[in-house]
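Just curious. Invent one:
>
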Amino acid sequence: MAKAALEACVRYLASELGEKKIRVNAISAGPIKTASARGIKDFSSILEHVAKTAPLKRNTDPAEVADTAVFLASDLGRGVTGNIVYVDAGYQIMGI
């Protein structure tokens, strides 16, 4: 429910702030091995499952998420607003 609320907020803010030339987008990243992820029980098995299931057959690289953020914040993304950009090696399309 929290994810749906966040996505709705992105769309609402994009609609409200667009006339002020403010773009609002969100990035939905796949699981990434970080220090805080170590606290998640069985996180390594989650990474293994995603790597086997995702169309690109690998996990998300943190640099890919950073690259997407740079794109969205730059003039290259000037026509993009109100979107959730998935950076997860295609995992979200699997319907799991």
Notes: The chain has a mean pLDDT of 96. The helical segments are 2-17, 43-53, 62-73. The two ends are 17 Å apart (CA to CA).
